Amino acid sequence: MWRNLLLRGTTCLLQVAAPRFLHQRPFPPFSCVRLLTQRLLHRPPQLLDKGYFLAHSGTRAYKNDAKSALEIPTTPVTITDIKQYLRSKDIPFHDGHSCLHIQSIFINPSDRKDSYCLFIDKTTGQFLCKDTMVEGSWEDIQDCLEVMQKQEQDFLSPHVLLGYSESMEEQEERESELREVQRIWSSSVPLTDVPEEEALLVKTMFQISKVSNATLKKFGVRLFKPTKSLVFPWFGGPDSSLKGVKLLSAQRTDKNKVIYKEATVPKCNSFHSLFGLPLVGRMDAEVVLTGSELDTLAVSQATGLPSVALPRGASCLPPILLPYLEQFKRVTLWLGDDIRSWEASKIFSRKLGLRRCSLVRPGEYRPCPMEALAQGKNLGQIIKSSIPAAHKSIVSFKQLREDVYGELSNTEQVAGVKWARFPELNRILKGHRKGELTVFTGPTGSGKTTFISEVALDLCTQGVNTLWGSFEINNVRLAKVMLTQFAMQRLENNLEQYDFWADKFEELPLYFMTFHGQQNIKAVLDTMQHSVYLYDINHVIIDNLQFMMGQEHLSVDKFAVQDHIIGAFRKFATNSSCHVTLVIHPRKEEDDRDLQTASIFGSAKASQEADNVLILQEKKLATRPGRRSLQITKNRFDGDVGIFPLDFLKSSLTFEAPIQGKHKLRKVAFKPENEGGEGMKVEGKKVEVKKEKVAKVAKAPRTVTGKESVQK
Predict the structure, then answer these.
(1) What is the model's pLDDT at position 589?
(2) Long-range residue pairs from 238-242, CB within 8 A, at least 24 positions apart, any chain
(3) How far apart are the C-alpha atoms of 495 and 502, rounded to whole Å?
(4) pLDDT at residue number 414
(5) N or C: which end of the chain has fewer CB within 10 A?
């Protein structure tokens, strides 16, 4: 299903964690790429063979290593287009699970040995040569093949593909990270060299007492003594050199619980490592994919099977890693012991190819690999009992039985990710779940964008990969608001703290669409599909629906257009297992009336298709800011609905529930100006009547029944 996801609009993604996108350098248009091809065509053949510097401009440089991030293609490409082009060039290829395999055009034919080591992603067209670590876009490989055909060359130097030179800041940052990697690695010691008592204490702290020293030595695990952290190396490249490290530290909380924290050098957005990959043989046909390095140690020791760990666990499977998993005919995904890991396994299996994937279903008798090893369970038997990812059909309750039991036994995890800043939302909605559609509305000027940005930021800080589509507010202003909410303070008054908070904000899995103003729904959906494939997006915010109804729909009924758009978002959320939050403006209502579900603009389809309906209510006051409250009018998960007040903190642009009892609304009798005296008299009479009734009730004797007297 992933083959048709890469269509138009895929250039409309902006990652907050990639500063090179925030400070863009002037990239040449596509015509300049073709100009580069023409220059290559007129170069002497000997220059192409020897890999001399081919100058495109004064700022070009060698591209000796793999890029830290995938470039987003500028034109749509399909698997059919790729195959037809390769056949037109008489290039043989193997149809793999997620990539097409061809012989590398960057290796001399005498050295290839019929090795199909160049992989072309079926969805994006991105390619990677594993032997030379050359990678690029589909346009890049087309240019290279045109050069070879024109010059009648058998191969090209890996240095033909040139990249833009780094700025001084980027170069210094990269060199600083490499020095930091070497410093940590050289300062750490193998666990086998640590004194026995200290090693036993470290193993107990990280709950790896059952892991043998031989396994730790085999995987190169070390101890960084200054922080008492385990160090997991990342070896990559043709020479298997040290590219990065991951540090795992243990901390004790106030509640006497131990939590584990990870840190990677370089940063996580450029940390594309499969821990354990150097130990995999070329002839191995089966692998176990885990969500942590410790689980990989457990699987390898207990079963002897090849096992690798994803760099970011169950949160993301970068497509750049897919070529390294192509050789395996069977991939078992054992990412953890919770529902979130189970959902991630099903999503990742689509990228890897459903037919070859098997999933270990979490359960009481199937914990994560390290816990299973500690409990003395048979890990090999658990892997053999894994279920295939592809099901033809479900014909009876027998196929659903385990899924139903899993939801009943893991109610908290099934409810989704909890909000840290909005406990009242947890009380009503129970959590944030994948595959749902949330409709959010509120009066104009009530702070819809500000509120929903904090709700999304809350989830993003907990590892929910988020994509923002802000068509009303540009990305710079939106990022400024979210950074203020993240820092919980006005940074314009504390500019000396900007870099500190900006560095932390960059680490969030947060992306922005570059759309602004009226947009075509197809372009937006294509961008969303592309982001799900590349970055495993779990939450998409569209602000707002009215910007999807552009000028091309003037001759069509606007309600029919809106229904079509809502149906498209509903289908995307279900098929992609991604939560979509859709902001819709309400109909015009009286200022003194609360909004209802029927107040959502358009037909009833929006509320019918939605799993959750949230309304930001505002009581406007003449002398001070209005009182806001959040009302949940629909909750398909368990039916709970409700309303709770919100206070807006202007100093941090955040919302919070007020202290209980602070906002107690009292009904005040309305008194017309010309009837003030009569109103007082009438009100006084009512009070007197009430007092008389109370007095009569008090004087009336109370009859005690026999049963009551016995009870007393």
Answers:
(1) 74
(2) 238/131, 238/132, 238/133, 240/278, 242/181, 242/182, 242/185
(3) 11
(4) 87
(5) C
410 lies in the same domain as 431: no
For 228-237, which contacts have Cβ atoms below 8 Å and span 24 or more sequence positions?
Answer: 228/202, 229/263, 230/202, 230/206, 230/293, 231/184, 231/185, 231/188, 232/275, 232/293, 233/185, 234/271, 234/273, 234/275, 234/311, 235/277, 235/278, 236/66, 236/273, 237/65, 237/66, 237/133
Which of 217, 218, 267, 214 lies closest to 244, judged by CA? 267
Q: Are residues 392 and 440 in the same domain?
A: no
Compute the Cα dihedral for 10, 11, 12, 17 and give only its sign.
positive
511 in Cβ contact with 16 (< 8 Å)? yes
pLDDT at residue 75, rounded to an integer: 59
- Quote the CA–CA distance of 461 and 419 in Å, as a whole number: 10
pLDDT for res 399: 67
Task: Indicate whether 345 and 402 sit together in one domain.
Answer: yes
Q: Is 621 left (phi over 0), alpha (psi -120 to 50) or beta?
A: beta
Tokens 């990022």 correspond to what residue? 479
Q: Per the domain annotation, does 694 fall within a domain? A: no
Does the pTM surpass 0.85? The reply is no
Q: Which residue, 177, 389, 334, 135, is CA-closest to 267? A: 177
Are 306 and 281 contacting, i.e. CB atoms less than 8 angstroms apart? yes
C-alpha 630/C-alpha 341 separation (Å) is 31
Decide which of 605, 628, 656 is a domain's last residue: 656
- 3-state class (DSSP) for residue 221: coil
pLDDT < 50 positions in the chain: 1-12, 17-73, 662-712
* The two structure tokens encoding residue 262: 């990870």
Regarding beta strands 510-513 and 13-15, do their DSSP bridges make them parallel or antiparallel, or are they unpaired?
antiparallel
Indicate which CATH number applies to the domain containing 488: 3.40.50.300
pLDDT attached to residue 258: 81
Whether 701 is covered by a domain: the verdict is no
Same domain, 592 and 534: yes
Residue showing tokens 């070896």: 235
Chosen domain end from 414, 449, 466: 414
Domain count, the chain: 4
Residues 264, 199 share a domain: yes
In our burial notation (b when 16+ CB lie closer than 10 A, e otherwise), range 319-333 reads bbbbbbbbbbeebbb
- In whole angstroms, give the CA distance from residue 58 to residue 52: 15
Domain that holds residue 646: 423-656
